[in-house]
Amino acid sequence: MEHAGYATLSRQSGLMREMQIVANNIANAATTGYRQEGVVFSEFVRSMPEGASMSMARAQVRNTSMDQGPLTQTNGRFDLAIEGDGFFMVETPNGQRLTRSGSFSPNAQGDLVNMSGFPVLDPGGIPVFVPPNATTVHVAADGTFSADGKPLGQIGVFRPTDPLLMVREDGVMFRSDGGAEPADQARVLQGFLEGSNVNAIAQVARMIEVQRAYEMGQSFLEAEDERIRNAVKNLLR
Predict the structure, then answer these.
(1) In a 10 Å sphere around its CB, with 0-12 CB exposed, 13-18 middle and 19+ buried, how is residue 87 labelled?
(2) Phi/psi zone of residue 39: left (φ > 0), alpha (ψ -120 to 50 degrees), beta?
(3) Who contacts 58 (Cβ-Cβ below 8 Å, separation ≥6)?
(4) Which helix (H) or strand (E) is 18 found in, with range?
(5) How wide is the angle at C-alpha 101 spanned by C-alphas 97 and 104, nearest 5°?
(6) Which residues contact 192 (CB under 8 A, 6 or more apart)?
(7) What is the pTM of this model?
């Protein structure tokens, strides 16, 4: 295969990866706390003999949109949303993870957990406890948690120390390899859930663009294959 074929294949591979990401965004357009994901294309240039060079496309870097998603009022006592830059922190078997999905509820032991059963942590990294006999529960804007009018603790709101070191895990959860720190400017809203920040219309439009670009590259590869076949046939005559 000639250089043009290799360059086109690298482009096709990147487009296929982007198509998978766009399709995943569309599938999660209604997922609570989901962050839209994108792909960054870069250029890889390799030196060739006689001073020439060959450029190839690479799409190995993913980026995550941290735009605020729409807030929906649910009036649920343990439905929480964050307004601003911040994340809730939960304890998983693999360590602490950050999430914007605030659909919580108390488990049998009284710990506040997410939909996967992972405990929600306070600013000190301790699971938040909800008294089983509490009749009224209130969460203030700073995350202060009170039951029957008595303050019991605070729900932690964090932000990654280095956003570039965040790694997406399990759809709505992130691992922060650079650590996390308190997000003092974020506000906690009780009785609300933050929806996905996916722009479904824009993502469908992007899917069509990627599909057309992929089809164009495929047509080029088919034409290049036919050209090479004809050249070989002529040489063998």
Answers:
(1) buried
(2) beta
(3) 10, 14, 41, 42, 43, 44
(4) helix 3-27
(5) 95
(6) 71, 72, 73, 74, 79, 80, 81, 102
(7) 0.82
Taking the CA atoms of 41, 46, 52 and 56 in sequence, report the sign of the dihedral they define.
negative
Q: Among 79, 78, 92, 63, which residue's Cα sits nearest to residue 170? A: 92
pLDDT tens string 157-178: 999 999 888 999 878 999 999 9
Kindly report, residue by residue over 66-91, the tens digit of the pLDDT. Answer: 999 999 999 999 999 999 999 999 99
Q: In whole angstroms, give the CA distance from residue 71 to residue 158.
A: 19
HSE at residue 210, side-chain half, CA atoms within 13 A, is 22
What distance in Å separates the CA atoms of residue 23 and residue 20, rounded to the nearest whole number? 5
